[in-house]
Amino acid sequence: MTEPSAETVPPEIPAATEAAATTTSSAGTPAGVGPAGTIAVRVRDRALATPDAVAMRGKDRGIWQEVTWAGYWDTVQTVAHGLLALGVQPGDRVAIHAENRREWLIADVATVALRAMTVGLYPTNPPPEVGYLLSHSGARVLVAEDQEQVDKALEVIDDCPDLERIVYLEPRGIRHRYRHPALLGWDELLALGAEHRAAEPEAVAARMAAATADDVATLIYTSGTTGPAKGAMLTVANVDFAIRVLVDGGGFTDPPPGPSDLLLSYLPLCHVAERIFTTWFNAGAGVQVAFAESIDTVQANLREVQPSILFGVPRIWEKILAGVTIRLANASAVKRWNARIWLGVADRIAGTLVRNGGRHTAGTRLAYGIGWLFCYRALRVRIGMRRVRYAASGAAPIAPDVLRFFMGIGVPMHEVYGMTENTAVATGNRPGRVRLGTVGEPHPGVELRIDEQTGEILTRHGGVFAGYYRDPAATEAAVDADGWLRTGDVGEWVDGTYVRITDRAKDIMITAGGKNVAPSEIENALKASPYVKEAILVGDRRPYLTALVGIELETVGEWAQRRGLAYTTYRDLAEKPEVRALVETLVAAVNAGRAPVEQVKRFALLPKELDHDDGELTATQKVRRAAVADRFAELIDDLYTRRSARSGAGEVGAMGGAAESGARAGAGEPGAGAAG
Amino acid sequence: MNTTGRRTRLRGRPDLHTSYAQELTLFDTRAKRVAVAGLLVVALALPFLLTDEVLQLLAVCCVAAIGAIGLGLVTGYAGQVSLGHAFFLAVGAYTAAVISGDPDGRVIGFGITNIAVWLPAAGLLAGLAGVLVAPLATRLRGLYLAIVTLGLVFIGQHVFSEWSALTGGAGVGRPAATLEFFGQPIAATGPLGTRDQKLYWLMLLLLLGFALAAANLARSKVGRAFTAIRDRDIAAGVIGVNLARYKTIAFAVSSAYAGCAGALLYTITGFFDPSSFSLLLSVQYIAMVLIGGAGTISGAIAGAFFITLLPRFTRELQAWVPFLSAQPNEVPNVFQVETILYGVLLIVFLIFEPRGLFGIWVRVRNYWKAWPFSY
Q: What does pTM read for this prediction?
């Protein structure tokens, strides 16, 4: 793959600013205003070049309302003028607390146009976290979606001395009822902006012209599985680097994304991954973005939009796979029989694809072509992936089985790797060069090495962040003097160029017997089953490994129904001996083929679903191990003390359906565990 | 944010609606357009493939379909059970016959033989009759409405059999309207085709026009008001549907369709007498709507063809079942089989496939639509 722009990044330049200076000079943005092509500049240039092309779609009363580039840019300018009228200065923070929607992008781009920083808040953030994020970032303006988010902000506004204005998008329940002086409607902001724009039409353009590569474009708060969230500062240069490598350079897709591509935006925009795919693919390559109505309607929205580029976190892929499994199990006999044949073929196709790095052979092409008629085409239409030409999984480790399934039915699946602190630019599986179980090869222009002693992955490139906001100590710990970013992930090289992630450095467990175990691999093998939603391995400084398993209410409920098992609540279902036996077979299947020290000796079923509000999950649905260990301490103690018959290593094949799914979870066993 | 409101849909993404117009399009997918076009080509080519006798029967089918669509609008869409369809058919038939009838004949006639005059007039007058009946419908519903409209049939039958100056009297009858278009006879054997071929084409094109008009009405505000009334008239009233107004519209449109169908129906045979417009005729149309599928245009058409072709099939049956007789005075004969089959079919459909022929189609379609899942 030729990569002309990549060569322009001199590997020996340590400081981000200098690297940015070189990168931007070669970026060749059409109208080079200032040293950096901010996303605002990119949006403006698209509006000038293709004013009538569709920039984004949002569903409104059942209709996907389209916004053209001209309309997009026009609104951005008005909003930017409105923010100017509110007194937003360069370097100020503007927080956005909303689901993915058109106004999110508009507010984001308007903020960047003013050389201010965007701070995204997760819609699920409870009030204390909202208070922390608003006060820590010192946001002056908050764009809040609706009454729910406004309520959260008003609850903590006294702890946020910098917060002056709360702009709400949905007036329902707020207008004519709330009298707080800080409140301002979106339409009022637009009116304010229009007025300001008429008075000083060049004010925003002047701000944009003054932009430098060092301006911080956005603060992205990391989810904080261990401590309070830290705000990573991504500069204009970082964003520009990421766009050049991942979008213009086709770091992910081949051919690179373009205006004819469609994309569904549904993961939180405050996360760097969705920011890349939604905001930067949109502004950088003109990809049309459609906003899902909510995270619950993703599958329906996927069917409608049929995106051509699809990014998902492992949980999404697992959930879609679980949905397919359940619906096939409930299909009529002929359909079940048809699906069994063709999914078997798909599995063999996937096997060949895995051996070939994702490339088809003549044989698999023929098999796929026939299967396409009978199953794959229809299946892909139903799950909304008929037109997907590039699918990616990232942000957390995923079981290779899940990826294999999607590869088999013809969805080109790629695991990618990156993190907020390096603007999500690190490695990716390239189309045609896929290696399952690895996160792919470093992108061109990216320096990546693995520390000999600790095995930690280090990266250095123009996308390395400018530091944590108001936390120089943490910044120092993350980036060394030479500009190498410590990712906190332990990994190893595979076949020279591919990187395999073992686990988060801090998650690696050392059992009482002195064995190192990487929990995520075993956890993901468990989670590959449609019946398992959460699996948390326990075993640090313990004699053997145990697991806390959370069942997937939907699929296990369906499974119970088919067996005529009555249940009332999640807890009731989880405590059924039949369900226990089902999970037992799954655990046994995962244990099979593993060294005894890496086997889960016992497990317990969680009596409740883990929840963000209870502090067990982060906003990105990652498990907070410490919180879970604390909350379910009794359950864990039981696993290590009580000598009862409730042993995890049960017999496999007690039940037909369980054995079947167990076999699927066990098939394609990922390589034999971690370094020991 | 100005939105584009694009009316054409994105290629390959049939569910991505960017305007309401897209969701309301009659033939929204390419598969549907291709299927309808294919069906139309076959229908238009039929006169070259079939005998005149069959074509005449198919022409009757087309006219019956127009009447069935009309009943479908009031019963299937608006949910107002009407047993009075025969009465409206009669009003239409006599209006057309009177307008185009011979002024010097033994029955009333004005001698205006132009179809462009008598067909709309028949529809208009029948529609007016519907409007007169509508106040009943706004006060009654369900079984009561059915009984009242039943009364209409009996009143009509009495009037038509007694008023022999108009109808020629029971057992005698009068000639039907003349098929002429501005002095040009439409259905006459000539170099372009036989009478039956032309008749079939004419009725097919008229059916097409009436069906499209009904489909357009059904997807409009009026059509949505109809279905709202059918699903729950009180709820419809609460959300702002003017019940009296829309029930009147339903009866008017339905009767107008019946009037046109009545006017056309007897031009094929050329002669009719008042005993044709009995309760049996109403029940036949109800059967068309129910067997075809209530609340659909294509269902009504399918039902009309099915019911109209049924006697023909039973007659063919005779060749296969030797103990059946073609003579009405022998037992068992094909006419008895026809009557029995008719009743059995109604029962079977109402019990096992209440959504009619269209329901079968929907089921087949859904089976493949959900592939490879079941839901």
A: 0.84
